[in-house]
Amino acid sequence: MSVIRKPWVRPVFTSHRTGTNKFGMARQRFWRSDIDGVAVEDLVAEHGSPLFVISERRLRDNVRRLLRSFRTRYPRVRYGWSYKTNYLNAVCATLHQEGAWAEVVSDFEYDKARALGVPGSHIIFNGPYKPRPALEKAAREGALIHLDNLDELFVLEDVARQVGKVVPCALRLNFDTGYAEPWSRFGFNVESGAAHDAARRIAAAGVLKLTGLHSHIGTFVLDPRAYAAQIKVMAQFMDFAERETGAAIDYLDIGGGFASRNALQGVYLPTDQAVTSIDQYAETITQAMAEAVRGRKNWPWLVLESGRAVVDDAGSLITSVVGSKRLPDSRKALILDAGVNLMFTAYWYNHECQPTRAIDGIAEETVLYGPLCMNIDVMRSSVWLPPMGPGDRLVFNPVGAYNNTQWQEFIQYRPAIVMVQESGTVSEIRRRDTLATMLEPERLPAALATPFPDGLPE
Ligand SMILES: Cc1ncc(COP(=O)(O)O)c(C=O)c1O
């Protein structure tokens, strides 16, 4: 008679820790061996590890869901893709194909949108610093310029006289919605009357025309009622500007801020329960819009600039375990080949991370470190993972928002980024750093060309 033995599993001792709860003890149950049907191992074999992977299908699905949700509830909805969230050309081009305008916050982003073929007329130009040449270009090309401060307003007046045309512009407003901490450093304050003065000044200048109002109340805004409060203030300001300055407001731009399906640190509930759905935002926002436009002949466009909610879960980071150790306090630690220089958002999210195969053994609390020789390089300070060691891989998701724009060239070569296209084709959309690409911007004075002119030091 043959005896079926269970495989031996290495015993694990874990010290009891207080502070965990019914969610905190949940073990990693899922593993993920492919991204949109392409095996993680094949991706790594072809493009190396670590590797960022963008899902074209998810990106398109997300923006379509957003637009459908709003456009079925309010007839005039426009969407501006927030370049700073992820300005990889392939990402921006995908969203432009879905009808997105470009929402840019710097000269560089403006030029990037133009280089991609976006006409000035479809660029929303935000941000606290727009150098004069950038304002001139934007004014000539008919971009929607959102003014941040009085000095900028004066420069734009001057630019308008120089280019010899009446330049349309919008005011960025800030105010207290009663929900999120006001971002009062951007734009003109409503409560103090600064915004009203700016609207009067625009009217008096004779060369500018106020056609829009903008505000961005914050990011990862979980309570949709904050947007209803925002729209109420913006609508009151619209009434004022039209009544007292003769402006004709064509759009209310409510900025971005919808939560992505990510786990914000410090939030108790699991992501599925904590995160507001796009339909919930749309329902509350469009009801507030309906209230705001009641009795008006012309309904203003509702402009959305949602960033993270559209791109975050379309991005994954494949990383490999390169070492493991036991910390003095008994916790397991893994060293990965990707660190916070690549995944900047590790500072405020507990990103989900999944092994790429089923792994037997008892899950235990694990710390994930990156490869940087820096104490702050912690990808997850506590995650329950099965026993893993060198050669195993983890897939982090969602990582599509703010990482590819805020990553740093620091110590390591930055990895390639690929897009899994809807067709199943995998395209490299950004090449890996090489010594040549990293050294390209540097110049070495001739006198320093030889490192040891007097021979090697002892
Ligand atoms: C003006 C503006 N619009 C849109 C966004 C996108 O925000 P989010 O990614 O939270 O949707 C930002 C981000 O800070 C912003 O500053």
Describe the protein in words.
The protein is α/β, with parallel strands linked by helices and 458 residues long. The chain folds into two domains: 34-53 and 313-434, Lyase, Ornithine Decarboxylase, Chain A, domain 1 (Beta Barrel), CATH 2.40.37.10; 126-306, Alanine racemase (TIM Barrel). Helices cover 29% and strands 22% of the residues. The protein is built from 13 helices and 20 strands. It has helices at residues 40-47, 56-71, 89-97, 107-115, 132-141, 150-163, 194-205, 225-245, 271-274, 278-293, 308-311, 403-406, 435-439; strands at residues 34-35, 38-39, 51-55, 77-82, 101-104, 123-125, 144-147, 167-174, 188-189, 208-214, 251-253, 301-304, 315-326, 332-336, 352-355, 364-369, 378-385, 393-397, 417-420, 426-430. Strands 3, 13, 14, 15, 16, 17, 18, 19 and 20 form a nine-stranded mixed sheet that branches. A hairpin with a 5-residue loop joins β13 (315-326) and β14 (332-336). α7 packs parallel to α8 and α8 runs parallel beside α10 (278-293). The longest helix has 21 residues, at 225-245. It is globular. The protein starts with 33 loop residues before the first strand and ends in a 19-residue tail after the last helix.
What's the quick description here?
With 458 residues, this protein is α/β, with parallel strands linked by helices. The protein has 13 helices and 20 strands.
